[in-house]
Structures are given as structure tokens and as C-alpha cells.
Amino acid sequence: MLPGIAGIAGLASGSKVLTYREVQIGGTNGTSFTASGAAFGPVASDRYIIAAIFTEDGGAIASATIGGISASVIVQVTSGSVTAALVVAAVPTGTTGDVVANFTTTSDHHAIAVYSATGLTSATPVDTDSNTTGAGLTLTTAPDGFVIGAVIYDPLRTTTWTGVTENHDTSIGGGQAGVSSASGATTSGSTVVTPTPSSAATSTAFVAVSF
User: What is the pTM of this model?
Assistant: First the structure.
């Protein structure tokens, strides 16, 4: 999927609904990156926004805000020059808003993928996991829930996902790194999420969450 193309895909499972909204990329050196006016979808009293944040040639994610609301960092991992993280905030109002990622050091290239979720009772996930190898992660899952996986490779690689459906596969830094996110509904007690790169990468940061 090309950068900036929303490619909206919804997942409905029981009362929980996850919808992929869009991905935005940036290449200006700095200690923060803003996905400006990101799509949040319809207003809902129980809506949460979940963002996958990627950075290359930068530090970890120190903090984030979504629509001006402080977001919780659910999970993150750094490997060599790359970091991937998933963050979440309850954002019941506004159909669009800024998603701001603050880094611990200057980041050269970055991306933010945005999801909306309704039907959650809290921002506490069922399970999280991460690794720096890209090997499959086995997550404890709810029968009416969903999972999201997010991976970044240095140098640029494309991704084939198993266990989930790809939402975007995006180049950042003019081809210096590749980022991808995927999601899926869950119907059993565990789900294995696996990203497979087009060829071996020097650095890999892979995170996943279930709700």
C-alpha cells in the first residue's frame, strides 16, 4: 500500500470493532513527529485510538499524544537503528486529530499508523509481546477481540504477514527502512502473529498487542 493511502479495513468481532485508518510518514530530523489531522473515524463515547509508531536512526518513544490526549505506551522495542511501538488513548471526540510521537533522541525517519477501536472496556490489553528477530509472537487473545502487529526493518524490506491481514507496507527515509502493520479478529485463546521480510534485514523491531 502506498504511503498516505488510508485503505480502510474494519474488523468486527463481538462488540469490539477495530478499523485501520491511515499511515503518515516523515523524514525531517527532530525529537518529535506529528501525524497531522489523522483520521480517527466516527465519534463514539467508547472510542480508543491505537497508533503504531516507527522510527529509524532515532531513539525510543518517550511519550505520545493522540488528539491532545496523553497516550499510554503499550509495548515497544528497539533493535540497532530502529524502534517500533504501539500506543493507545481514549479519544471519544473529533473525527480527526494530531498524533504526536516524542523520541528520546533525534529521529531521522518515522511513521505513524492509526487505528480506531470501539467496544473496549479499558486501555489495558489482553496481552503484548515483542522481539528483535521477527519470529512469530504467540499472544493470549479474547474470543471477541483483535490483534495488531507492527514491524520495522533496516534496510528497506517488504512484509508478508501470517495470522493477521496486512494494513500497510510502507517505505520511509527514501527507501532506507520499511514499516508494516497488520491486524485481525480473534476467535480463540491464542493467536500467532508473524511478519516475514522479503529478505533478511540488519535490524528488526516487532511488536504486537491483543485486546
Answer: 0.93
